[in-house]
Design brief:
Blueprint (H helix, E strand, L loop, with lengths): L6 E3 H10 L5 H9 L6 H18 L5 E3 L5 H10 L5 E5 L2 H10 E4 L5 E3 L3 E3 L8 E3 L6 H4 L2 E2 L6 H23 L4 E5 L4 H24 L1
Parallel strand pairs: 1-2, 3-9
Antiparallel strand pairs: 4-5, 4-8, 6-7
Helix pairs in contact: 1-2, 5-7
The structure holds adenosine monophosphate.
GO molecular function: AMP kinase activity; ATP binding
EC number: 2.7.4.3
Function: Catalyzes the reversible transfer of the terminal phosphate group between ATP and AMP. Plays an important role in cellular energy homeostasis and in adenine nucleotide metabolism.
C-alpha cells in the first residue's frame, strides 16, 4: 500500500523535544532561543529516530525541511541514503525577517498563519514583491502563538548563522548537480503551483535522461 511521502522538518523534531521532559530539553531551549544550531549529534539522533519510525510504517521516501544545515550533516546524510533533489527556496533577507516576525501558530489546531503584509516596490532593477498575509479564521484568532525564536534579534542571528554554516551546504549539492534554485515569486498561494510546475519539469527531464 502506498504510504504518502512525509514532510520531516528537523525544527519540528527539535521543538517536540524541547517541549518534552527529556534531560536535554532545558539546554536545547537555550540554544534554539538564541538562534544557534543544535549539535549535529543531537540533530542526527532525532532525525534517525524519526526515519526509523517511518520505515517501520512503510514510508519509502521523505522530504526533509531544514536539514542538512551543515556540510557535516550533508556528508552524514550522503553516507546513509541517496538524495534525489535539493530545492533552495530563495527570498530576500529583509522579507524573510518580516515573514518570521509575522508568523503565528494556532495553539489549538496547530495550523500556521502569517500576519505580515509584504509590499515591496520595484527598485534598482529588483522586481516588486507582494505577499498577502495568510490570516487565521476567527476561531484561531484568540489562540495565536509566536515562536520564542521569532524576535528580530534572534531571526537576524539565525540568518547570520545560516550564511556562515548552511550556505556551504548549497555548494556541496551544487557540485553534485542536485540543486533546484527557486526564487519565491510571492506568497504561498502564488508560489505553490509554480513550485509544483518546476518540480514536474525536473521529473520529466530526469525521465528523459533515464530513457536516453
Ligand atoms: P526551524 O524550525 O527550521 O527554524 O528550526 C528551529 C531551530 O531548531 C533552529 O534555529 C535550530 O536551533 C534547530 N535546528 C533545526 N534544524 C536543525 C539542523 N538541521 N541543525 C541544527 N539545528 C537545527
Amino acid at each position: 500500500s502506498a504510504c504518502p511521502t512525509p514532510h520531516i522538518a528537523t525544527g519540528d523534531l527539535v521543538r517536540d523535544e524541547l517541549a518534552s521532559t527529556g534531560p536535554d530539553a532545558v539546554q536545547l531551549k537555550e540554544i534554539v532561543n538564541q538562534g544557534k544550531l543544535v549539535s549535529d549529534e543531537i540533530i542526527i539522533n532525532l532525525l534517525s529516530k524519526r526515519l526509523k519510525k517511518g520505515e517501520e510504517k512503510g514510508e519509502s521516501g521523505f522530504i526533509l525541511d531544514g536539514f542538512p544545515r551543515t556540510v557535516n550533516q550533508a556528508e552524514i546524510l550522503d553516507g546513509v541514503t541517496d538524495i534525489d533533489m535539493v530545492v533552495n527556496l530563495k527570498l530576500r533577507e529583509d522579507i524573510i525577517v518580516q515573514k518570521c516576525l509575522g508568523r503565528r501558530i494556532c495553539g489549538q489546531c496547530g495550523k500556521n498563519f502569517n500576519l505580515a503584509c509584504i509590499d515591496v516596490k520595484a527598485e534598482n532593477g529588483l522586481p516588486p514583491i507582494y505577499m498577502s498575509p495568510l490570516l487565521p479564521p476567527n476561531n484561531c484568532m484568540s489562540k495565536l502563538l509566536t515562536r520564542d525564536d521569532d524576535t528580530e534579534e534572534v531571526v537576524r542571528n539565525r540568518l547570520r548563522i545560516y550564511n556562515e554554516m548552511s550556505q556551504p551546504v548549497e555548494d556541496f549539492y551544487q557540485k553534485q548537480g542536485k540543486v533546484l534554485e527557486f526564487d519565491l515569486p510571492g506568497g504561498i498561494p502564488e508560489s505553490w503551483p509554480k513550485l509544483l510546475d518546476v518540480l514536474n519539469l525536473e521529473d520529466q527531464q530526469e525521465m528523459k535522461l533515464a530513457a536516453a
